[in-house]
Write a structure and sequence with these properties.
FAD/NAD(P)-binding domain; ten-stranded mixed beta sheet; 585 residues; Enolase-like, domain 1; disordered C terminus; alpha+beta
Length: 585
C-alpha cells in the first residue's frame, strides 16, 4: 500500500526538525512525515552554536525548551591561533552583562546575542519532540532503502521505500521531499548530485567525551567560552556541554594523521597532552574511552534542488568546524527550505525563482564559510603567504586580483553574507573580520577604506535590479537587489538605511548625522550599534564599487580603524592561566 504525505523529510536531526516544525507552525494542515534511521537520544558532534540559531529556535517556539535543559551559555570563544602563544577571546557580548542573569532565562536583552554549547543527545531530542508536538509524524529507526524516480522526469522523486524497525517495507509518496540526512545524503546520492571540494585543506577530526573536566571560566550563571587551541600540527576544541560533561576534539590534516603511523586513539590522546591549558582542565577528568573520528573535508553539492526535492544542512555542504558554523548553516538552511515549501503551496511566487533563489543563497553561504575557514587556517601558518592565499580564495570566487588587492577584498567583507541586510559571517561582523586580519598579519591595526575619504556618492550605473527574497514570519517577501560585475547590493536592513541617506547626503559628517537619526528612531535601545553596522555596510559598498569615495581637503574626515584587540576581541585573562602557572606546567 502506498502511503501519502504532503512533505517527507529524511533525517530527524536539527535540519529535519527545523523544517518540519516551521512548516507545521505556519501551515498546520500540511501532513509532514519525518524519517529518522536512528533511535534518539544519540550522541553527535557539532555542539558549539552561534547566536543566529537562537533566532530560529525562537521562531520555531522551542527556545525556552532548550534553555530549560540548562546547556552552558556560550558567551564566545578563547583562541590560541597563529604564530603567537597569546590567548585571546572573541565575545558575542560583554561578559559583564551576564552577571545577575538567572537561569532559565528569557529570549530577551543580552540573551538575544548569546548561544549555547549543547549536548546533542539532549538537544536533538528536544527539537524532534517539538516537531512531533506540532504535528509532524515521526518515524525513528526507519531506514530509507530506495528512492524511486519518476520515469517521465528523472529529476523528480516518485516515491520512496522505507524499512521500519520491524523490517517491514513501506512505500511513501509526497509532493515535496527534503534531504536532511546529514553525511548520509540519501537523496543527494540517489539523484547522483556531484560535490565540489573547494577548500585548500583536507582535515580529519577525532573526539571523545570527558567527565568532570573543569571549565576554563564561569561567566555569570552557567556562562562560559569554548576553547579553540592551536598546537601547530592542528587544533583542539574544548566544549563544556554541562556541569560534568565536556567534548574534546582534535582536528589535523589527513596527511599528518597518515604520516604519524598512530591509531586514532593514540593520536588523539597525544594531541590532548600537547596543550597545557587542556592538560590542566582535564587533570581530574576521565575520558569516556571511545574515540570517534571522521574525515572533516569541506564540500559543496553542485545542486541543491530538483523538481520536487531539496538538500538541507550537511547533505548540501559542509564547512570546516573552526568557525562553529555547521549548526547555524543547518538551521538557517532548513528554515529557508521550509519557507520555500510554504510558498510553493501558496502559489504566490514563481516556483523556479523560489528554488533558484534557495539554491543560490545557500550555496553562496556555504562557500563563503569554506573560504573564511581557509582564511583562518592561513592565519595559523598552514599557508606560507596569507596574501597569496587570499588571492586564491578570490580566484575561487571568480575574481582576478593581485595578492594585496585580494587580501584587502577578503578582509573588508568580500565574503560576508550571513545576515540579511548587514555585513557579517560566522558570528563575526566586518569590524571583527578586520580585527582578525590585523591579528593574523601581526599588524597593530587595519585602516578602513572609509578613512581616506570624506565624500561618498552612490553609483548604480549599469547595475541590474533583480528580485531577492526576504524571509519573515513564514512568508517570502520579494525585495530587489542590485547586481553588477558579479557583485550584489541588497536593499534591505542597514544597506537600505545607508542607500536612503546617500540619495540625499554625500559628506561623511552629514551621512553620520542622518544615519544616527534614523537608527535612533528605529532602534532606540541599540542605536550606536546599528550606526556602526550601517557604516560597515558603507565600507562594503565602497569596496565593491557601489559607492565612489573621494577626498576634499577642505572637509574633515572620520578615521575608521580596527586593531587586533578591538571590539569583541580582547586578551584572555581567565583564572586557568594562573592555575597553569602555579602548577608549573
Amino acid at each position: 500500500m502506498l502511503d501519502v504525505s504532503d512533505v517527507v523529510i529524511i533525517g530527524g536531526g536539527p535540519g529535519g526538525s527545523t523544517s518540519g516544525s516551521l512548516i507545521r507552525k505556519y501551515m498546520p494542515d500540511l501532513a509532514v512525515t519525518i524519517i529518522e534511521r536512528e533511535r534518539f537520544p544519540r550522541d553527535h558532534v557539532g555542539e558549539s552554536q552561534l547566536p543566529l540559531i537562537s533566532r530560529v529556535l525562537n521562531e520555531m517556539g522551542c527556545w525556552e525548551k532548550c534553555e530549560a535543559a540548562n546547556f552552558p551559555v556560550k558567551v564566545g570563544a578563547t583562541y590560541r591561533w597563529g604564530n603567537s602563544d597569546e590567548l585571546w577571546d572573541f565575545n558575542f557580548v560583554n561578559p559583564d552583562q551576564l552577571e545577575g542573569q538567572t537561569r532559565p532565562g528569557q529570549y530577551e536583552g543580552v540573551r538575544l546575542n548569546t548561544a549555547w554549547q549543547v549536548d546533542r543527545a539532549v538537544y536533538d531530542q528536544i527539537l524532534l519532540d517539538h516537531a512531533a508536538e506540532l504535528g509532524c509524524e515521526v518515524h525513528q529507526e526507519a531506514q530509507v532503502c530506495r528512492i524511486v524516480v519518476d520515469e517521465a522526469d528523472p529529476d523528480r522523486i516518485d516515491h520512496i521505500v522505507v524499512r521500519d524497525a520491524s523490517g517491514q517495507e513501506h512505500e511513501l509518496r509526497a509532493r515535496h521531499y527534503i534531504d536532511a540526512s546529514g553525511n548520509a545524503a540519501v537523496i543527494r546520492k540517489a539523484m547522483n548530485v556531484a560535490i565540489d571540494q573547494p577548500a585548500s585543506l583536507q582535515n580529519v577530526a577525532f573526539w571523545d567525551y570527558w567527565e568532570n573536566a573543569e571549565w576554563a571560566v564561569e561567566i555569570g550563571v552557567g556562562g562560559t567560552r569554548v576553547q579553540v587551541l592551536s598546537i601547530g600540527t592542528g587544533w583542539l576544541w574544548f566544549i563544556p556541554l554541562g556541569p560534568t560533561r565536556t567534548s574534546i576534539g582534535f582536528v589535523c590534516p589527513a596527511a599528518f594523521y597518515k604520516e604519524s603511523g598512530q591509531t586514532p586513539e593514540e593520536l588523539y590522546h597525544w594531541a590532548v597532552k600537547q596543550d597545557p591549558r587542556v592538560r590542566e582542565l582535564t587533570r581530574n577528568a576521565t575520558p569516556r574511552g571511545k574515540v570517534e573520528g571522521t574525515k572533516d573535508w569541506s564540500f559543496l553539492a553542485q545542486r541543491l534542488v530538483g523538481t520536487n526535492w531539496m538538500l538541507v544542512g550537511e547533505s548540501a555542504g559542509f564547512a570546516d568546524p573552526i568557525l562553529a558554523g555547521g549548526m547555524m548553516l543547518t538551521h538557517t538552511c532548513a528554515r529557508h527550505a521550509a519557507y520555500v515549501i510554504l510558498e510553493l503551496e501558496r502559489g504566490r511566487h514563481n516556483a523556479d525563482w523560489l528554488k533558484s533563489d534557495y539554491e543560490q543563497t545557500q550555496r553562496r553561504r556555504i562557500r563563503q564559510h569554506i573560504r573564511f575557514a581557509d582564511f583562518w587556517y592561513a592565519g595559523n601558518g598552514q599557508f606560507t603567504d596569507l596574501e597569496q592565499h587570499s588571492a586564491q580564495i578570490a580566484k575561487d570566487a571568480g575574481l582576478d586580483m593581485n595578492p594585496k588587492d585580494a587580501f584587502r577584498w577578503l578582509s573588508t567583507g568580500g565574503f560576508t553574507d550571513d545576515l540579511q541586510g548587514a555585513v557579517g559571517l560566522g558570528g563575526v561582523d566586518l569590524g571583527g573580520v578586520k580585527s582578525l586580519a590585523a591579528r593574523f598579519t601581526g599588524e597593530e591595526q587595519l585602516e578602513w577604506e572609509l578613512s581616506g575619504s570624506n565624500i561618498f556618492e552612490l553609483d548604480l550605473t549599469d547595475a541590474e535590479k533583480v528580485p531577492a527574497s526576504f524571509l519573515h514570519q513564514g512568508q517570502i517577501r520579494v525585495t530587489l537587489e542590485y547586481r553588477r560585475d558579479g557583485k550584489r547590493l541588497p536593499t534591505v536592513g542597514m544597506f537600505s538605511i545607508m542607500q536612503q541617506v546617500l540619495e540625499k547626503k554625500s559628506i561623511i559628517h552629514d551621512i553620520r548625522t542622518a544615519v544616527a537619526r534614523i537608527c535612533q528612531k528605529h532602534y532606540p535601545q541599540s542605536a550606536p550599534l546599528h550606526v556602526m553596522l550601517c557604516f560597515q555596510c558603507l565600507e562594503s559598498m565602497v569596496n565593491d564599487g557601489w559607492v565612489r569615495a573621494s577626498f576634499d581637503p577642505m572637509l574633515p574626515v572620520i578615521n575608521f580603524k580596527s586593531s587586533a584587540n578591538s571590539g569583541n576581541f580582547v586578551p584572555n585573562s581567565d583564572d586557568v592561566n594562573h592555575r597553569i602557572s602555579d602548577s608549573g606546567a
